[in-house]
Amino acid sequence: DAGVIQSPRHEVTEMGQEVTLRCKPISGHNSLFWYRQTMMRGLELLIYFNNNVPIDDSGMPEDRFSAKMPNASFSTLKIQPSEPRDSAVYFCASGKTSDTGELFFGEGSRLTVL
Amino acid sequence: GENVEQHPSTLSVQEGDSAVIKCTYSDSASNYFPWYKQELGKGPQLIIDIRSNVGEKKDQRIAVTLNKTAKHFSLHITETQPEDSAVYFCAAPLYNFNKFYFGSGTKLNVKP
């Protein structure tokens, strides 16, 4: 299996622009998570989906952030409009709720907002 | 929510020595405790985990111990090697397996 695939790996954009991060989870996994990693705040859970349904989005920082999972093999995290404080590495992870609880992380999308 | 605290934030050891990283958690209902290793430029990867029905689990040079009464668990790496250098995270779930809270991470440096 190719693992969790994220794109883009790096994105540099200007403040006010829309940013869309993409994730393809591991086939057969029914849970998907978006995490944000910064030096100051560590790994923060933004939102997670179970069977394509958003279960908990309490970690989404503001209305500027939105996430969708239209099908079992694709999810997006969108920031509109972006701000410099959104600069971070965004990770997508997938897992099976019926399994051990192990999360499989992608390699992350490094976002820089100027 | 769950409060997971991890210590130390940095740890430097000589190759061959042991390293110990400790975490405490707040939710007494938590019953699954994983440890993840993150190498530079990559996502975290599970290296070992433990469930609340056991007190210790070993996998070659790594082990995890759990004290449910005190609500803390530790990662032990013996005979450290330079390739063990990475950031290590503990985690604990809230309510169920799905919502994991991560510790702040420990940067381990193994000096050759």
Describe this structure in words.
The complex is a heterodimer of chains A (114) and B (112). Chain A is mainly beta and 114 residues long. Chain A has strands spanning 5-7, 10-13, 19-24, 31-38, 42-50, 53-56, 65-71, 74-79, 88-95, 104-105, 109-113. In chain A, strands 2, 4, 5, 6, 9, 10 and 11 form a seven-stranded mixed sheet that branches. Chain A has a four-stranded antiparallel sheet with strand order 1-3-8-7, with no helix packed on it. Chain A is globular, with a radius of gyration of 13 Å. Helix content of chain B is 0%, strand content 56%. Chain B has no helices and eleven strands. Chain B has strands at 5-7, 10-14, 19-24, 32-38, 45-51, 56-59, 62-67, 72-77, 86-94, 99-102, 106-111. In chain B, strands 2, 4, 5, 9, 10 and 11 form a six-stranded mixed sheet that branches. A five-stranded antiparallel sheet of chain B has the order 1-3-8-7-6, with no helix packed on it. In chain B, a hairpin with a 4-residue loop joins strand 9 (86-94) and strand 10 (99-102). In chain B, 34% of the residues are buried. Chain A binds chain B through residues 4, 31, 33, 42-43, 45, 48, 50, 55-56, 91, 93, 95, 97, 100-108, and chain B through 32, 34, 36, 41-46, 49, 89, 93, 97-105.
Summarize the structure.
The complex is a heterodimer of chains A (114) and B (112). Helix content of chain A is 0%, strand content 54%.
